[in-house]
Design goal:
The chain folds into 2 domains: 57-150, Alpha-Beta Plaits (2-Layer Sandwich), CATH 3.30.70; 170-299, no CATH class. 38% of the residues lie in helices and 20% in strands. It is built from 8 helices and 10 strands. It has a 6-stranded antiparallel sheet with strand order 6-7-5-10-9-8, with helices on both faces. The chain has a 4-stranded antiparallel sheet with strand order 2-3-1-4, covered by helices on one side. Helix 2 (16-22) crosses helix 3 (24-43) and helix 4 crosses helix 5 (122-136). The protein is flat, with a radius of gyration of 37 Å. The model is unreliable at 272-313 (pLDDT under 50).
Length: 313
């Protein structure tokens, strides 16, 4: 066989790519046709807000207290399988799929049913099977039954709740700041601690519409124990007020150490890694987003400085 030259191949070889290269007008016509076809198909496609996806699987269960697995299989499971098999729309059993599948355990029988894929009225067929099983209840052994048939797996209801809180305005922030400041001043004046170190107050603030729950109190006591054990605070005591709980004491630690301790406490003890420490000019605080509340820290000499200058609920 003689060897064909490249020129001969180019001149005599015919294929689909060469046809479209030599006839670009055909390519453009087909491209426009495909685009028009796609646009028509997209706009004629049926659409629903909640697509109807029929579930073709159901399960029949029946209890027989005290019976062995063999007794359940013989006197309960098999009669249920025979009753279900009377329906003509059961999926034909294959190696990869099933029409009827059963599980027999001591005291209980489960029979799984799957309808064929070409069944249009699924609810009607399941209703027919349910009526057949209801008639079978009178034929079960004494103590067995009744048969429960569940076919509404696709009727799932979802309830979504969203809780949102508007940002507090400057007036509310100022009122809450003054209230917390006054409470801390009164507590420090009554305490009159002589411990060496700077007065430090760590405040956990929450919406005033919520009462001080035992969960918050337990968390405050745990924080107090951990802070004293770590040497962050000394001579500390808990201060409670409307919409907040605070831990007041003295400390020689710097801002970074205290904020790092608060962050570690939230991550390891309260399991809230979203607590983000933040530092302001007059106050330091940490914000756990999911709890919609703030950890606020203020430092001062003999009086407490305002600690809600950047508070958000």
């Amino acid at each position: 066989m003689a060897h064909r030259s490249d020129q001969d191949r180019i001149e005599k070889t015919r294929n689909v790519p060469r046809f479209f290269v030599e006839n670009p007008q055909v390519s453009w016509v087909l491209l426009v046709g495909v685009l028009v076809w796609g646009w028509f198909g997209y706009h004629s496609m049926p659409q629903r807000k909640d697509p109807d996806i029929p579930v073709r699987v159901a399960v029949a269960s029946c209890s027989w207290p005290g019976a062995t697995a063999q007794q359940v299989e013989q006197f309960v499971t098999r009669p249920i399988e025979d009753a279900v098999a009377e329906n003509k729309t059961i999926h034909p059993g294959t190696a990869a799929d099933y029409g009827i599948r059963s599980v027999s355990i001591p005291g209980y029988a489960y029979v799984y049913v799957q309808l064929a894929e070409d069944v249009s009225d699924v609810k009607r067929q399941f209703s027919d099977i349910n009526l057949t099983l209801d008639a079978l209840n009178s034929q079960l052994p004494p103590g067995a039954g009744p048969i429960s048939f569940q076919s509404d797996f696709g009727d799932t209801a979802a309830l979504m709740l969203t809780i949102a809180s508007p940002k507090a305005d400057s007036v509310e922030i100022d009122i809450r700041a003054r209230g917390i400041q006054s409470t801390i001043q009164s507590a420090r004046a009554a305490k009159k601690s002589k411990e060496q170190g700077a007065p430090v107050t760590i405040v956990y603030s929450f919406p005033q519409s919520l009462s001080l729950s035992k969960t918050i109190q337990d968390a405050g006591q745990l924080f107090e124990q951990q802070a004293e054990h770590a040497g962050i605070l000394r001579a500390s005591h808990v201060i409670q007020g409307s919409g907040f709980i605070a831990l007041d004491g003295v400390s020689t630690a710097n801002d970074a150490s205290i904020l790092n301790f608060i962050q570690t406490f939230f991550e390891t003890r309260l399991r809230d890694p979203t607590c983000i420490p933040m530092l302001g000019n007059q106050s330091s605080f940490a914000i756990p987003r999911k709890l919609a509340s703030n950890w606020l820290r203020s430092r001062g000499t003999n009086t407490a400085t305002p600690i809600l200058t950047t508070f958000r609920t």
